Amino acid sequence: MKNRSFLFPLAALVLCLGFAPAAQAQRAQHELQITPATAAWGYYDAAAPPVLRIKSGETVTVHTLITSTPARLEGAGVAPAQVEPALRDITEHVTNKGPGGHILTGPIFVEGAEPGDVLEVRIQAIKLAIAYAYNAFGAKSGFIPEDFGYAKMRVIPLDEKKMVAHFLPGIDVPLRPFFGSMGVAPPAASGRINSAPPGIHGGNLDNKELVAGTTLYLPVHAAGALFFVGDGHAGQGNGEVDITALETSLTGTLQFIVRKDLHQTWPRAETPTAYISMGLNGDLTLAAKDAVREMIAFLVAEKHLSRDDAYMLCSVAGDLDVTQVVDGTRGAHMLMPKSIFGKVKPEKSK
Prior knowledge:
- The protein has helices spanning 11-17, 19-24, 70-75, 85-93, 284-302, 307-317; strands spanning 29-32, 39-41, 43-44, 52-54, 59-63, 103-110, 118-128, 132-137, 152-159, 164-168, 171-174, 178-184, 193-194, 202-203, 215-219, 227-233, 250-259, 268-270, 274-281, 319-324, 330-337.
- By secondary structure, the chain is an alpha+beta fold.
């Protein structure tokens, strides 16, 4: 893949350029339930009809469902009364499925978004919707299926008060809820694409850094952007090695802002403390190289470093992590801490 540059806007620059006031002018609140009419089962598609239309700057509280079926959950030990009615409705009535398996909510049409723009998604809050999650692997899935030639599924209680998952007696896993899949429609020429592999549209990124307080930036490929979300995770380890995380239902509050001033090719993100570049490729090594190249491009464009100095800084301060190794297209990401940069804009290095 070719080197791609992107911008990480600073809050002060945004205010100076006048984009923040415009984005904040609209503060309407919407709520989007997950029903057979608002579910997209297993795909991202520019031809999907919008289930909600909003203006740039508006906020949506969106409900998502665990990606499973009532029969599968009950077979693993979930009491019938604990299976969400919405999941039963969708399983029974949604026939327009595939080619993937994720139950997504959407798409949301954001007025003014056009191909070439960037959709800024501010993740304001994420809450657990049910008191359990599951983890499962299959005979032919996961990172080392040759070692586990069978399928297994475990239901795991979630303790929202303590924010831990009771994995096994004596083993509690801290919860960091995030949506495994957040993306926009791919280019129309791509048609309907599988919800499993991530790509230029974002999608099934499975990046555990995308928690509340993080902002995701997605390149727009279709009018209205057409945003889909789902694949709720109560927590996940980097790699997601057996192919699932703490799979659950989540409710998220998301603010959508159309950015005419940004132009990028691949997804990126920003937390309160770090900049995040992403690399996606069928080869994990190539994905990791692209994540590094993306960060170098940022440091050159926004921090005015030379390419040599940017490369060095990535090595001494950047954390290159494996995002996931199980979605066909593998992911890597680099985190660069904001704290290392002083308030004074550095001069161009030589």
